[in-house]
Predict the structure.
Amino acid sequence: MSREILKPFLISKDEEGGYRLTVRDTRYNSQGYPIVTATLQDEKFTTMAAAKAFARQHWNAESGQYSTK
């Protein structure tokens, strides 16, 4: 695994054409190795903007904290 910092919010398109939000939490073990926990949210969104708005409302996400897949 690389040591680059992952953005905490991943927005991906599902097979039905909707968007899903994954919230990632990165912490480091005693050797400095990153441990990432990813939690896929239950909500499905029709647009990427709706997924971003949900992240801003529930986790105080800011611009630049999103990645797409």
Notes: Residues 9-68 form a domain with the Nuclear Transport Factor 2; Chain: A, fold (CATH 3.10.450). The chain has one helix and four strands. The mean pLDDT is 92. The radius of gyration is 13 Å.
